[in-house]
Each structure stands twice: as C-alpha cells, then as structure tokens.
C-alpha cells in the first residue's frame, strides 16, 4: 500500500521503497515536514491530489508489480472516502492493459530494498509512463505532476529487478 500511496502522489517520491532503517529516511522526514507545511499554506487537500487519474496510476503500478487483492480492497475504500468513483471494472480494465514487469517477492527474487538500490518505485513508474500507461499529468504532494517528479529521479536501467515493458513476465504472482 505504501507503493500505491506514493504512486497516487500522496507521499514523496522514493518513500515506498526506502527501507525504514535506511539513513535516507531522516532526510525524507525533514522533507515531509516542509512539504506538509507548504500544502497547508497553499490549502492543498488530499482530495485535490486523489483523483481518478491518481487511483488509476496506483492500480497500474500495483498490477505491474504483481499487487495483491489487498490493493483492490484498500483503493476501493480510499476512493469511496475521497468521493472518487472507482469500481472493480476499473481494476479489470487496467489489469488487461498492464504488463507484469516486476521480479519481486513473494513470487520473484527481490524485495523493496533491492528495488530502492536501482531507483525505487520511480523505476517502475518511468517505464510505465514511457509506455503511455500512466497519467503523467496527475498532481502530487510535491506540487509537481507525476511526469515532472520522474524527470528529476535517477534510476538504473541495467538492473535485474524490473524488466522492460516490452518483455513482460508471463506469470504474475498469485494474489
């Protein structure tokens, strides 16, 4: 769910994959505080960010990474609270169009700490955005769009965790 929240634009880029004990978390904590103060000053509310596009982005990345039924239950509940129309049909539509590109546990070989070393969730998002599968114009807590956030994020393309969108795995992990 941390991945979904990051993809929806409700947490700072990199948040979902940085391990809790990683020294980068301290800097991120400071950034979160500054971001929260800016959002309050600008009167930006969660519902300004949690749009249909944001939920569709979260579903897309979740599917691409082999997400579980947990993401369905939680995103439907969050969307309901945010007043965003979201239905099982949205998950089905997006799932049919989204390649499974992650070699992540439990079915794969890697964990989030591994993904963090190669660029984190941004690596997944950059590949999906380049393939036209994400809404790049969705707004985030940074005050920038998804596409703008991804421009400034360095990722390592030659790595084993996330495969190319053009060569997806045929078997996503069982939910």
From TrEMBL:
Spell out the molecular function terms from Gene Ontology.
Answer: dihydroxy-acid dehydratase activity
Q: Which residues form the Dihydroxy-acid/6-phosphogluconate dehydratase N-terminal domain?
A: 1-149
Q: Which Pfam families match?
A: ILVD_EDD_N
Coiled-coil parts of chain: none
Keywords of the record:
Lyase
Give the originating organism.
Geodia barretti (Barrett's horny sponge)
Protein name, entry field: Dihydroxy-acid dehydratase
Under the heading InterPro entries, the entry gives:
DHAD_IlvD/Edd (IPR050165), ILV_EDD_N (IPR000581), IlvD/EDD_N (IPR037237)
Q: Tell me its family.
A: Belongs to the IlvD/Edd family.
Task: Note the PANTHER family from the entry.
Answer: DIHYDROXY-ACID DEHYDRATASE DAD (PTHR21000), DIHYDROXY-ACID DEHYDRATASE, MITOCHONDRIAL (PTHR21000:SF5)
Q: Does Cytoplasm show up as a keyword for this record?
A: no
What biological-process terms (Gene Ontology) are attached?
branched-chain amino acid biosynthetic process
